[in-house]
Amino acid sequence: MLGAFGRAFKTPDLRRKLLFTLAVIVIYRAGTFVPAPGVDYGNVQQCIAMGGTTGGIYDMVNLFSGGALLQLSIFALGVMPYITASIIVQLLRVVIPRFQELHEEGGQGQQKLTQYTRYLTMGLALLNATTIISLARSGALLGNCPLPVIPDDSIIMILVIIVTLTAGTGLIMWLGEQITEKGVGNGMSLLIFTSIAASFPSALGQIFKTQGWGVFAAILGIGLLVIIAVVYVEQSQRRIPVQYAKRMVGRRTIGGTTTYIPLKVNMAGVIPVIFSSSLLMLPGLVGQFATPKDGTPPPEWVNWINSNLVKGDHPLYMILYFLLIVGFAYFYVSITFNPQEVSDNMKKYGGFIPGIRAGRPTERYLGYVLNRITLPGSLYLGIVALIPLIALVMFNANQNFPFGGTSLLIVVGVGLDTIKQIDAQLQQRHYEGLLR
């Protein structure tokens, strides 16, 4: 494989794409350390050193931003507004017929949906920036740290910070699109990959520092096994054979070929994990806003939420998390793969599944197979997502434990897709690919 990487850099066109991608990634990582105007960087670092964090959904945002959120840098929002906007636009296809029509129009319709995603991303970035600055001003963002992270909290300065964070999200979105257009791989996915991978050394270093050599080596071994399992499941698919009948078009005979419909075991990807995490963080946010600011004890229901549904180490939280992931996996697969549409397209072009009649029987058969393979896929997602929570209990780690959950699924998935794209470009130039 190292030789294949060498051949990739020897190919002028591919070398230019790889270097461009690396340059954009360096710019993105550098931006995560540039503090926003008006932020006292020294106080922020002291609050982080004291262990200040809100926990919950903001830990996920901080993970996806490569640590930029808690640094209150210009890239503090990271890619989360874009991810949320993309999911919302995709879900709106079920609710708004116009969105579904644009999706079916091909390239021109996809460009229109992409434009809607950009607008929604900026709107969500403005909303998220306002929320984060409000939490930072009150000290809640960094675990009620007593040090002021925004010394000058005048309206003008707050507006400048909000505009800066929103503009940072726009710049990140533009950088991701530049990678997709001029580099290698999907730009936004690679930026997420970079942000998550950047947190691995510090997470592993913290485990080594607090737990010692024995636990550190055991965790590395478990991590290797989990990565192998994730790669195996992510590459697994059920191939449904499809036969196309021969037909005459003019003087030519077309059709008569055999192909297959690949149904991945994990068709939902990492989306159910993100949905479930976000939903379980809502009670904690409600409890945080319901906590009195004058120092009086919070209501009993707030204490119950803080004890059972915030930290993630309670059995009730784990059970709800697992069940939500399974449910969202079935929901997301049902809206992204339409057996009726696939059946109609097959019938339109003279295709059929051997032993299954075209039309309604094909639709029922595809739905049956889809439900069967979604079950192990959803259980797999739930188990992998619980690994950081189990590590939180067993090793006193945090929820950004590197070998499990959202982080590992994204890193492995994006890594595999990027290698496949490089491999395809090498094979186009008559070189042996990265994957043998």
Describe the SSE topology:
Elements lengths: L1 H9 L1 H20 L9 H9 L7 H8 L3 H4 L8 H16 L1 H8 L2 H32 L16 H28 L4 H49 L1 E8 L2 E3 L2 E3 L3 E7 L6 H20 L9 H9 L6 H22 L2 H10 L2 E2 L7 H35 L10 H24 L8
Helix pairs in contact: 2-9, 2-10, 6-7, 6-8, 7-8, 8-9, 9-10, 10-16, 11-12, 11-13, 13-15, 14-15
Can you give a write-up of this model?
The protein is mainly alpha-helical. The chain folds into two domains: 152 residues, no CATH class; 236 residues, Preprotein translocase SecY subunit (Orthogonal Bundle). Helix content is 69%, strand content 5%. The protein contains 16 helices and five strands. The chain has a three-stranded antiparallel sheet with strand order 4-1-5. β2 and β3 form a beta hairpin. The longest helix is centred in the middle third of the chain and has 49 residues.
Q: What attributes does this structure have?
A:
436 residues; mainly alpha; 2 domains; three-stranded antiparallel beta sheet; two-stranded antiparallel sheet; 5 strands; 69% helix; globular; transport; protein transport; transmembrane; translocation
Spans of at least 5 consecutive residues whose pLDDT stays below 50 are none
Q: How much of the polypeptide forms β-strand, as a percent range? A: 5-15%
Helix coverage percent: 55-70%
Highest-level CATH class of the largest domain = Mainly Alpha
Biggest sheet architecture: 3 strands, antiparallel
CATH H-level homologous superfamily name of the largest domain: SecY subunit domain
Overall structural domain count:
2
Order of SSEs: HHHHHHHHHHEEEEHHHHEHH
Structural class call reads mainly alpha
CATH 2nd-level architecture of the largest domain: Orthogonal Bundle
The CATH topology label of the largest domain is: Preprotein translocase SecY subunit
Q: Which sequence of strands runs across the widest sheet?
A: 4-1-5
Radius of gyration: 24 Å
The total beta strand count reads 5
How widely separated are the two ends?
A: 9 Å
Number of helices: 16
Protein name: Protein translocase subunit SecY
Subcellular location: Cell membrane; Membrane
GO biological process, one term: protein targeting
Pfam family, one: SecY
